[in-house]
Backbone:
């Protein structure tokens, strides 16, 4: 049983930055991976970044490479997504998610946060 609480979304202008935070609690594993997904109306959730707890394995969607980066604070069981150079195409609801093991597949993430809206204006 894992609980996730995310925050940090909001409205920004194109070219701006946001940092999303995700706090994990409950029975987490040392092999755990945290992922960040985003979803727009009528679309399935799309993985944009993932990193295991050690930080030695990571994934970034091609369209966010060089702009987004993940980090974590192991002592606080928190993960972050720093988003820079935002564009209107980044507008979506962003979710953090948890998997027991490193994965780049949506189906393997068993626990999800509530979502936080990111809106990027032109």
Residues:
């Amino acid at each position: 049983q894992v609980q996730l609480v995310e925050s940090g979304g909001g409205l920004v202008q194109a070219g701006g930055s946001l940092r999303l935070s995700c706090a994990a609690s409950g029975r987490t594993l040392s092999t755990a991976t945290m992922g960040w997904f985003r979803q727009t109306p009528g679309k399935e959730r799309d993985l944009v970044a993932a990193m295991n707890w050690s930080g030695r394995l990571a994934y970034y969607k091609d369209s966010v490479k060089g702009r987004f980066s993940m980090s974590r604070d192991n002592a606080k069981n928190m993960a972050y997504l720093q988003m820079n150079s935002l564009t209107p195409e980044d507008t979506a609801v962003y979710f953090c998610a948890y998997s027991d093991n490193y994965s780049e597949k949506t189906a393997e993430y068993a626990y999800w946060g509530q979502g936080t809206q990111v809106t990027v204006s032109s």
The mean pLDDT is 95. The two ends are 40 Å apart (CA to CA). The CA atoms of residues 57 and 106 lie 16 Å apart. The first strand starts at residue 2 and ends at 7.
